[in-house]
Amino acid sequence: MDKIPEIIAYAKEKLQEDLTGHGFDHASRVATLATQIAKKEAVQLDEEVLIAAAYLHDTIDDKVVPDVAIALTKLQSFLKEINFSAQQQAEIIFIITNMSFSKELEAKANLSIAGQIVQDADRLEALGAMGILRTAYFGGSHQHPLHNPMIKPINFTDKKEYRKGTTVINHFYEKLLLLPDKMNTKTAYTEAVRRQKFMEAFLSEFYQEWEPENAEFF
Fold first, then answer.
1. For residue 3, which phi and psi values (nearest 5 degrees)?
2. What residues does the HD/PDEase domain cover (predicted)?
3. Measured in Å, how far apart are the chain's first and last C-alpha atoms?
4. Concatenated DSSP letters of the chain
5. Disulfide check for 147: which of 103, 105, 156, 169 has CB 3.0–4.6 Å away?
6. For the chain, what are the domain ranges?
């Protein structure tokens, strides 16, 4: 675990200025959630790989970096420099290049147990109160409309089209509310359902406030 401080420092350097909801604070929470899930599930895994993948997963993401290929090359060199084994390097890179929701629109990868747990932790961050705020933050940064009843949610099957987005509220139906059923572990599924209920209550309130003439506030 002696490499983790360097991993954290690398992630902080790459993510601290992010304004899309994928900053260092997000990476830190994913690492914490991944550690908690692994402990609860009581599985055997390489903890350094788990934590490294959690902190680094957005440092090569096309939502965050302008050139994925360059970011990936830099990350691979960094992992080698701090003496991760070739096997560890390969597992970390495979996890972070195959764990995203958009990647699964193309094909679902066979992630290791560490990868499945990091994926679960990242997806929990897209749910609940944090998920609501991050969705609004990301949508605003990309100039997506907040809500337009005339624009219906899309069942995306193509990453390029998915990246374009529709509206902030549609994103709940296009991705977020689908996540609980995509969890890999029982621990994450239980927490995902709890957060999903909170989001559904939020949406119910949102629709009342969006059309106050039809609401029963008073």
1. -85, -15
2. 19-136
3. 57
4. -TTHHHHHHHHHHHHTT--SS-SHHHHHHHHHHHHHHHHHHT----HHHHHHHHHHTTTT-TTT-S-HHHHHHHHHHHHHHTT--HHHHHHHHHHHHH-SHHHHTT------HHHHHHHHHHHHTTSHHHHHHHHHHHHHHTT--S--TTS-------HHHHHH---HHHHHHHTGGGSGGG-SSHHHHHHHHHHHHHHHHHHHHHHHHHSGGGS---
5. 169
6. 4-207
- Report how far residue 27's alpha carbon sits from residue 120's, in angstroms, rounded to the nearest whole number: 13
179-214: pLDDT as tens digits? 999 999 999 999 999 999 999 999 999 999 998 887
CATH dotted code for 4-207? 1.10.3210.50
Please report which confidence band the pLDDT of residue 217 belongs to, taking 50, 70 and 90 as the band edges: confident
- In degrees, rounded to 5, the angle at the alpha carbon of residue 210 between the alpha carbons of residues 208 and 214 is 50
Half-sphere exposure of 68 (CA within 13 A, CB side): 8
